[in-house]
Amino acid sequence: MLLTVTERSRGHDYGDALSKSILFFEAQRSGKLPPTQRVTWRKDSAVHDGDQFQEGVSHLYRKVDLVGGYYDAGDNVKFNFPMAFSTSMLAWSVIQFGSSMGAERKHALEAIRWGAEYLMKATSVPGYVVVQVGDPYSDHNCWQRPEDMDTSRTFYAVSKEYPGSEVSAEIAAALAASSIVFKRYQLAYSARLLRRARMVFEFADKYRGSYNDGLGHWVCPFYCDYSGYQDELVWGAAWLFKATKNSYYRKYIDENIHNLKTFAEFGWDSKDAGINVLLSTLMINNSSNSNADKFICSVLPESPSLSVSYSPGELMFKQGGSNLQHATAFSFLFLVYADYLNKVNRHVDCGGKASAISPTRLIQFARSQVDYILGSNPLKMSYMVGYGEKYPKRIHHRASSLPSIDMQRGHIDCKGGSSYFQSQNPNPNVLLGALVGGPDINDQYADSRSDFVHSEPTTYINAPFVGALAYFKSHSSSKPN
């Protein structure tokens, strides 16, 4: 099977998809919404986050201002591990392809800042890093609008006694990457982000350990760390090196990169492939090019070292839920690496008949995945809500599936939303730009609210897609429909 860009991929309006993909983050906002809020069916929520702690659980026995941030998916919990990754990827998207975003760059910056501001709050008490707000068990037992939720808003933190290197280092990476973005616009703010990033990285490295151990009951199985924390430490150091050019971080990378376990994973849990692609663009560590090449060869269907699967309609698949998170993250990395290969005039050698993979081939692959998601697939369905004529209507998302406060002002309690969850009617609020988990490996999609593996949107599916869409917005000869 050979993926190529064919006539079927023509006609996508990447600019429209980019606008919607960024708009999605406004619908995921927690806290006091700004006057500029464009998703007006969402209202203020969780405006007292940080007030409620529980001894023996939070490891931080005081109130902290934790208002803000993002709900990661279709629930009302703030999971800081995937939120930080999403912020990192939004920042990388602007760093790499911001010049292609046009007027949407302003909204992308707002999305990054909304995440970064919350992460600054989560790291405001020295010696502690808040990693989660909300009890996931009680939250997942309810179907409530975020504006109504009356479930526990307990917050959970790691410390030197109960470390959490993976989430702390990911927050450091997000803040460092964000500091690079804002250096061009707000120098003082950029410097503040960078100072905090360095402090949080030092904490993550000095007190090594996984938050699975101290907070496992509360973070697992929701966002349990399955790949270990070594990759986040190198990832954080890589972004700090990019932000500072300080030789300390380069030395740290050289001394710790051998701890990476794989080269073919990238997402909120494992950063390995992203590290190798990022380090290649920074021209440091000779093993990075080799491992980045291995990553490319593990994905391309014509490669003899292929390690992923493909649907009949040519969507890539890896094990685990919410498959589109892999398609969007990998597509983004392919575009970043193609840009690097073009600059150094190099090809990738996968062996056999795939001995000279050009940067153009990497771009073709990324576009095939992007176009599949936007509707060039057997069902002719867009997996971005609100894009195209046919898209998911019954997504697994509380705020989208329940009537907005504008439509129904009365309080909806924990079980009061059950009838809406069970309904076969389309969601009353169209969650523009949301990418769902996607079809199954046979290219089938049930469009069922209860099928959360396929119908739930997440910030970490959308974040890398922002960068990919920005690239194709300005590097495509396709004309909109």
TrEMBL record:
Glycoside hydrolase family domain ranges (all copies): 14-469
One Pfam family here: Glyco_hydro_9
Source organism superkingdom: Eukaryota
Entry EC number(s): 3.2.1.4
Classification via InterPro entries: 6-hairpin_glycosidase_sf (IPR008928), 6hp_glycosidase-like_sf (IPR012341), Glyco_hydro_9 (IPR001701), Glyco_hydro_9_Asp/Glu_AS (IPR033126), Glyco_hydro_9_His_AS (IPR018221)
Keyword annotations from UniProtKB, A to Z: Carbohydrate metabolism, Cellulose degradation, Glycosidase, Hydrolase, Polysaccharide degradation
PANTHER family in the record: ENDO-1,4-BETA-GLUCANASE
Protein family: Belongs to the glycosyl hydrolase 9 (cellulase E) family.
Name of this chain's protein: Endoglucanase
